[in-house]
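Slide 14.
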Amino acid sequence: MSKTIKIIECPRDAMQGIKSHFIATEAKANYINALLRVGFDTIDFGSFVSPKAIPQMRDTADVLSQLDLSSTQSKLLAIIANVRGANEAAQFEEIKYLGYPFSISENFQMRNTHKTIAESIVTLDEILNIANKSNKEVVAYLSMGFGNPYGDPWNVDIVGEWTEKLSNMGVKILSLSDTIGSSTPEVIDYLFSNLIPKYPTIEFGAHLHTTPTTWKEKVAAAFKAGCHRFDGAIMGYGGCPMAKDELTGNMPTEKLLSYFTAEKAATGIKPMSFESAYNEAMKIFN
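Slide 15: predicted structure.
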């Protein structure tokens, strides 16, 4: 029996760091509409964060109003960084998931959301309550899940301790995030092969950033360790604008698809629709 893989396409992650120009709302919506026809499990389409922090995403609500959701099975995810953003996103029935970046690096949490880890835990608890009341689900991203360039303590036991805390809070989807591309196959394998059996009520995901030469070993390590949820961005565009990652980009979706096709794993992706969306991506990013 073939394994079913959830592919989460992340145009928000691909677009958010572009500072040279503002991508027109209509162009964003056209691109995301093309992605909605592909068969992705989820589209990480926008964010409700401060326009000063991420100006490229200031039109997320306007983009949402132009999306055609009439014939797609894909669900929408919006990134939020605080309670205000969660309340704003929760008003939109079309949004299924609220994505919250929670860092186990104090330095990175301050850079990303201007909060300490202790403050972020309080925020996450409030976001879980908002999601519960508005029929949404929270996707928590464990930023710096595979390593830390900022000098904060990091090891696999710390990742395990935070997984335990977030599980106890009620997090049901936890995406381990390789925010700066520092992960190794050994660490990826160790974390997923230990955490997945220990927390059967949590759906674990892999949000891997990568250099062009290391993508396959990372995907293979996560998949073989039992991970069936993968984030990607067509052509590997993007990466976190708050992180040190000069050479790393997002996991290229086309590489994910080639790997899972070879592994005979079902992704639900329609090849012709993917090709069409790939062509739309070239218009946006070139």
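Speaker note: Residues 106 and 117 are 6 Å apart (CA to CA).
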